[in-house]
Amino acid sequence: MQKDAPYRIHALELGPMENFVYLIEDRASGTAAVVDPAWDVPQINALAERLGVRITDILLTHSHHDHINGIGEIMEAHDARIHLLKPEARFWGQQLARPELHHGGDHIQLGETAIEVLHTPGHTPGSACYRLNNDLITGDTLFVFGCGRCDLKGGDPEEMFQTLKRMREGLPADMVIHPGHNYAEKPTSTLSEQIEGNPFMCFREVDRFIHYRMIEHDRIRDTPYRPEPCDHGH
Q1: Whole-angstrom Cα distance, residue 9 to residue 132?
Q2: Contact 36, 139 (CB under 8 A)
Q3: From CA 4, how far away is CA 181, in angstroms rounded?
């Protein structure tokens, strides 16, 4: 985060699956958005209280249980709007209170903070990443030296390949990624570090990517993920 940015990103590691829950604080308005509220809502509320901010928005990267199981509690405590991509709402099939459905490229305004919604399918059909200046909250699309599974319902390894290719080719190399799980030896990383050392970012051929994601990866890699030389698929 740049020092003069209108926002701060605060991370909480919560739950048995090492989830990162983020609180985006808009410094000017004293409002905040919580990303993927789950597991320990009292801790999320305590952080907001400590910062003196009011939670007005809930941003969902996707609808898997480990990223959404705190929505009800948040909604009980705060008058918050839920944001997610339209294809994810269709995939999830839940009747949500006060949902705002988005398309890739939409912007959400949190006080003076502009948040761009990126459609990044692969882990689920409507997976989203949220871009704030040079920060990218990536959910289960991109981890530090890893990427989300594609073998669960709604997963598609070919779409994940295309998503990671677009990110590799279309986003600034110095962009800081904030993943949905703490699966590596450090909580954040730059995109350039991922292009150099994340095996999923190295593939140029979709068939090799699919084989690695669906078969090989889980046999040969364990957390915490570490950088690997990019020699796959060249």
Answers
A1: 10
A2: yes
A3: 27
Other C-beta atoms within 10 Å of 219: how many? Answer: 6
pLDDT per residue rounded down to tens, the chain (234 residues): 667 899 999 999 999 999 999 999 999 999 999 999 999 999 999 999 999 999 999 999 999 999 999 999 999 999 999 999 999 999 999 988 779 999 999 999 999 999 999 999 999 999 999 999 999 999 999 999 999 999 999 999 999 999 999 999 999 999 999 999 999 999 999 999 999 999 999 999 999 999 999 999 999 999 999 999 886 444
Residue owning tokens 């995109």: 191
**Paired tokens of 115:** 């948040």
- The rounded distance, in Å, linking the Cα atoms of 211 and 7 is 40
Six token digits for residue 208: 């090799």
DSSP, residue by residue, 107-121: EEEETTEEEEEEE--
Predicted TM-score (pTM) of the model is 0.96
Q: Are 144 and 189 in contact (CB under 8 A)?
A: yes
The kind and range of the H/E element at 57 are strand 54-59
